[in-house]
Design a protein that fits this description.
With 122 residues, the protein is mainly alpha-helical. It has one domain. It contains 3 helices and 2 strands, in the order βαααβ. The protein has helices at 10-42, 44-55, 65-101; strands spanning 2-5, 104-107. A two-stranded antiparallel sheet has the order 1-2. The relative contact order is 0.20. The model has no long low-confidence stretch (mean pLDDT 88).
Length: 122
């Protein structure tokens, strides 16, 4: 069976892309917090700060975790919004191009009517 995709609804693309982007953003934020806590607990952050201080010939070098967290939240939200806008833009472009070319042809096989190769039913 062949199907032709000629239009993608931009509103549905916006909803799906926002939910997927927000989910990914939330997962990355939680993973970043967990990794930061593990790095602080194991002393890795302190060792890295001492290394950078000695590399720059400074007395001390301190990484502010809250500032990094706030920056990652803002950058993540900007990326989520940008991704959603790009997804909607691409869906509109697809609709315009599909109107000119006739869409995308896809062949779909229904499982109920498909025959298995190499197996015979008694």
């Amino acid at each position: 069976m062949q199907r032709i995709l000629t239009r993608i609804d931009p509103w549905s693309v916006l909803k799906v892309s926002l939910l997927l982007s927000l989910s990914l953003w939330l997962i990355l934020v939680v993973a970043g917090i967990v990794l930061w806590r593990v790095a602080v607990a194991t002393g890795t952050i302190g060792k890295f700060e001492n290394f950078v201080a000695s590399l720059l010939a400074e007395d001390s070098f301190v990484i502010d975790g809250m500032q990094i967290f706030r920056g990652s939240l803002v950058v993540g939200l900007v990326l989520v919004i940008t991704g959603a806008v790009l997804a909607v833009t691409f869906s509109v472009l697809f609709n315009l191009i599909a109107g000119l070319t006739g869409g995308v042809r896809a062949t779909v096989i229904e499982l109920e009517t498909a025959r298995r190769v190499g197996r015979h039913r008694p």
